[in-house]
Amino acid sequence: MTFHHAGVIGAGAWGTALAQVCARAGLQVTLQARETEVVASINATHENALFLPGVALEPAIRAAADMAELAACDLILAVAPAQHLRSALAALAPHLKPNIPVVLCAKGVEQGSLKLMTEVAAETIPGAPIAVLSGPSFAGEVARGLPTAVTLACDDEVLARSIAHAIATPTFRPYVAGDMIGAEAGGAVKNVLAIACGVVEGKGLGRSAHASVITRGFAELTRFAVALGARAETLNGLCGLGDLVLTCSSPQSRNMSVGLALGQGLTLEQALAGKLSVAEGVASAPAVRALARKLGVETPICEAVAAILDGELAVDAAIAALLARPLKSEGF
To answer: Residue 286: which residues within 8 A CB-CB, separation 6 or more?
Structure first.
């Protein structure tokens, strides 16, 4: 299976970066944007001045506001934020031809339904072949062509390899996998854990505490994913450990930057003020907490983050509660 024309839904920083990847791989690209000023900027100056300023976009990228413009595409990348994916796919559905693959690039758990993105897709575009793209990738770095490796997960190995070859470039390397649940669960939980690591940094608790949150957070992430039906080994890869390490290690991470502000004493409203890009972990935290409880999975760090975001606990009280937990075993 070969692809020629990629449609990218969502022209935020990550959607624009993936449009860059597809264009560099030789595909014609239609980038769908809700913001008329983004469409105008991309088509007139080859720059997304609102969400990815300073990055020259490939000439093969054309922006469009109307979802109908994606009807001619033979590959779709859905990059709308997790909480908006359902409405975006519902808008796409009337224009999506049979058997056109849709790659889900959002990371999160839907509030209310507590469903993963593959479940949302199954309900909104039933019958469409689905894949999941996840992994350690900052939009600005990907857009500038810096080396990046990601997981491309799909139930159909032939389709996975076809998509991977279609979007691969010398600096963008998709590794195929068969575990879509593992890929999307890892991406959803790591955003919540990144907020926790930001709090650690903001409070000045040190590198040892930071490493502990990443490690114990990874244990939570793995338990959560396995309870959903994922394979534990999937989480050892790019879409689990790789993405967690990146997102929890740099203020470039939107989620970590929110936690950093909270740790420094700002309110959630102040932490989010002026941010154009979505910090997925803020919306996903309560959904991850609710789903973990439903599954009977212990996720104390995610619980603490959700409690802070919901105003149930102050930052200091949440930290004290975590440190007061009974000692646990590791590995036996």
So the answer is: 111, 306, 309, 310
76 — phi, psi (to 5°)?
A: -120, 135
Reported as type and span, the H/E element at residue 30 is: strand 28-32
At residue 331, the pLDDT reads 62
Query: What kind and span of H or E run contains 148?
Result: strand 148-154
Query: What amino acid is encoded at 149 in this protein?
Result: A
In DSSP notation, 104-138 reads E---S--TTT---HHHHHHHHSTT--EEEEESS--
Q: 328 an active-site residue? A: no
Among the listed residues 97, 107, 190, 203, the single catalytic one is 190
Q: How is 31-92 classified by DSSP, letter by letter?
A: EE-S-HHHHHHHHHHS-BTTTBTT-PPPTTEEEES-GGGGTT-SEEEE-S-GGGHHHHHHHH
Q: pLDDT for 48-104, tens place per residue? A: 999 999 999 999 999 999 999 999 999 999 999 999 999 999 999 999 999 999 999
Q: Note the pLDDT of residue 6.
A: 98
Q: What is the pLDDT of residues 202-244, one digit of tens each?
A: 999 999 999 999 999 999 999 999 999 999 999 999 999 999 9
Burial of 147 (0-12, 13-18, 19+ CB in 10 A): exposed
Asked whether the whole model's pTM tops 0.90, one would answer yes
